[in-house]
Each structure stands twice: as C-alpha cells, then as structure tokens.
Amino acid sequence: MIIGCVILNYNDYPTTLTLLNMIKRYESINYIVVVDNNSTDNSYSILAKEESSKIHLIRTQLNGGYSYGNNIGISHLSKYKIDLIIIANPDILFEEDIVKKMIKSFMIDKNLSAVAPYALNSTGRKTLEPAWKLNNSFRELMQTSKIISKLFKDGNKYSEEEIRINCCSVDILPGSFLMLDYKKFESIGFFDESVFLYCEERIMAVKFKEKGYKSKLLIDESYIHNHSTSINKSIKSYHRKQRIWLKSRKYYLLKYRSSNTGFKVLVHVFYIYLYIELLIIAFAKKYFN
C-alpha cells in the first residue's frame, strides 16, 4: 500500500518542522507533502530546505483554510496512486507504530473510510472528546449556543463503554490526525472547501455515513496534540475565531442537516440570537476576566 501524508502550514514553520523531523524517517509513509497556505512570514523559504524525493512542498496562491489547503495536498499525492492519506495538523506528534496499526485497520475492514487514535495533550491527558455522535438537526442547532447548549443533555459524546460496545465504530473523528481511504474520500468529493475552518469533520462524517462507510477510533492507541497551537498563532482574537466557527456551523447546518424549509428558517432566526450572544460573551471576556 502507498501511504501519503499532508501537513498544512500557515505562519508556523517551527511547529511544522518539529513534526516533519519526527516523521520523515518513517518507512511506512511513502510521501509527505507540506502545504504552505500562503504564509506571510518566511515559512516557505525555510521549509523548502527540507524538500527531497519523499518530502514535497507546495505553496498555495491564497490562504483558503483547512479544507482548501488539505485538498491541494491530496491532489498532489494522487499523482503517486496513493491508497491511504494521513491528514496531520502540524501541532501533533505520533509514533510510526500508530501508522502501522492504522494501516492494519484498513486491511482488516474493507468498508472503513477513516481511522484515528486517541488525542492526548503534552502532559499525557486526554484532550477534547476523542469522537462525537451525529445528533439530530435541532439538537445540533441548539448546541451551537454556548448558553442554551447547557440546558440540553450533551448527546453527542461517546462513553468509552459505548465505543467498545460499538467495536470502536464512531460517527465523527477529530480532523487533527486521521487516516483516510483515498478512493472512499474521493467518492465524497474530498473536503468541502466552502468552510474555511471548523466543521470539516462533521461534513465528512455526514457524507461518509450517507455512503454507508465506517469510521473507527483506535481506543488503545494515542498521539500528542497541542490543541489549537497553530490556530491560536494565526487567529489570536477569540471573537474572530468564534465568528469563523459560527459561519462554518451555519453552512453545515443549512447544507447538510436541513431537511425542510421550516428548519432553514429556524437556523436563520436563531443565528440572530447567536451573534448577540457572541457579542455578550466577548464583552464579558474583555472586561470581567
């Protein structure tokens, strides 16, 4: 099997180099493409020094976000007739043994579209939820609110017992580090480039589920994720990050979770409240933190 890895860089070459220097010796990975998402610093010239027959560097014409940049990298890797793709945020670290176990998962289950291990922070603790459920549309809309979501039982979380009972089969895997079957990913049109950042995993999960494909969490394997290190460097404002998140979430809800006109109207109306809520939270963070 031919394995390719895509690493997306934007104004954060030190973090990207740390990962690159770790994995470039991994024999289980045949090609690594670093996509510099039109960085405004000297990332491209520094990363160019790492180019080789195995490590390729591409510079995009614009910073089109996570989906755009990763699709550019995947398109480049397709020239080498790859079978599996690793999507890796620059702020992660993983051992080669994990790559081998991810590959083995695809060899065992031919209906598998995506696989990922548990994410740990730098101290070895579990970070955010390792995977999520796809909720019904109304609950997903309500959970977009930081305040109203607290009134609902958070039904999108898996317990470890549920994951084990389901033989590690889950709906949504985090996009920070995962391996994808190239042909199955191609069949759903790769990442949806209409979202700049956030909700890519949910969109992918919906499309995989519609095709009848499975996603798997490797519950006994883990990697280190210094969560949002690169995002926080490039987008420092909490308010801006939340506006991007709300925009992506709205697109996801309207395109992929709206089954009728009534729900679409509800989304538009509810978003008026969400933007007011965002202003209140931003004001509170600024003056009361």
Automatic annotation (TrEMBL):
InterPro entries: Glyco_trans_2-like (IPR001173), Nucleotide-diphossugar_trans (IPR029044). Transmembrane segments: none annotated. Residues 6-133 form the Glycosyltransferase 2-like domain. It holds the Pfam family Glycos_transf_2. This is Glycosyltransferase 2-like domain-containing protein. It comes from Mariniplasma anaerobium. The lineage of its organism: Bacteria, Bacillati, Mycoplasmatota, Mollicutes, Acholeplasmatales.
